[in-house]
Amino acid sequence: MLDLELLNTLVCVVEEGSFTRAGERVHRTQSTVSQQIRKLEESVGRPLLLRDRTGNQVTPTEHGELLSHYARRLLALSQEAQDMLASEVELEPVRIGIPEDFDARRMSAMLSGFVRAKPGVRLETVSGMSADLQRKLAGGELELALLKREPGSSECLASWPESLVWVRGEDVALTDAPIPLALFPHGCIYRQRAIRSLDKAHRRWRVAFGSHSLTGIQAAVSSGLGVSVLPTTALLPEHRICEDLPPLPPSELALVTSGSPLNTVQRALVDFLRTEIGGNR
């Protein structure tokens, strides 16, 4: 195994071209620097430096130049590791829950922006239905979560209203037959909105398609498999709004915490999401 201290000395000698000047950089005497280089040469079994007759100027051999190149990379990696270990707060994972029925591409783009801004952060995301994410928050498995819920149903760090609409495919016409629905699983507020509004209006319905995925529901609507309830932010170009179905009250996207105090990085993620989600609605 290569000794990092010896590698650092080699880099200094190669860059300075002198044992004396290299010794000043590493705070060692000229003789100590020379001994370290000899020890490194013995370790790798190759001559690494060429000395002139006066001993004042040295140049790297081909192997010395090659090893100094790797030495710089190893020293940089070692410094990076030390810096990361010194940043204890940033090493704590940030665990956030994301609704299954949220636009995955949009959320991935937002979170990748946060990771680029905070490269030392270890971000862990969990996808699931809002009811499941609430249970994980209560169980301490998450620090933060975005939830789809009834507006103002409890305290939160931030919230954004969601306008809901009925959507169908381009060539879908509604008749007196039971309305085919493309729905998320039980526990989803969009599903609840759809069924309750139809029942209240005494409109017949049937479940034609079910999926945990927003992409799946969007595709089912586009292909004409079923009618669904979606937020206006999730509509695709080929979707058409159904004006003749019962009106839908808005839902809410809320950023909530487990109740434990947030550390610096977690608070930074909260501030980031407030800006990103608020600016894209």
User: What about the largest sheet?
Assistant: 5 strands, mixed
**Total number of helical segments?**
10
Report, as a whole number of angstroms, the end-to-end distance. 55 Å
Overall structural class, as computed from helix and strand content, comes to alpha/beta
% residues in beta strands:
15-25%
Q: Say what the CATH topology of the largest domain is.
A: D-Maltodextrin-Binding Protein, domain 2
Q: What's the CATH class of the largest domain, please?
A: Alpha Beta
Q: How many strand elements?
A: 12
| Poorly predicted sequence stretches spanning 5 or more consecutive residues | none
* Basic shape: elongated
Describe the model:
With 281 residues, this protein is an alpha/beta fold. The protein has 3 domains: 4-86, Orthogonal Bundle (Arc Repressor Mutant, subunit A), CATH 1.10.10.10; 89-161 and 252-279, Periplasmic binding protein-like II (D-Maltodextrin-Binding Protein, domain 2, 3-Layer(aba) Sandwich), CATH 3.40.190; 164-249, Periplasmic binding protein-like II (D-Maltodextrin-Binding Protein, domain 2). Helices cover 45% and strands 21% of the residues. The protein is built from 10 helices and 12 strands. It has helices spanning 4-16, 19-26, 30-44, 62-86, 88-91, 104-117, 130-138, 189-200, 214-223, 264-279; strands at 49-51, 58-60, 94-99, 123-128, 144-149, 158-162, 164-168, 179-183, 205-210, 228-231, 240-241, 251-257. The strands form 4 sheets. It has a 5-stranded mixed beta sheet with strand order 4-3-5-12-6. A 3-stranded antiparallel beta sheet has the order 10-7-11. A two-stranded antiparallel sheet has the order 1-2. β3, α6 (104-117) and β4 (123-128) form a beta-alpha-beta unit. α2 (19-26) packs across α3. The radius of gyration is 31 Å and the shape is elongated. The mean pLDDT is 87.
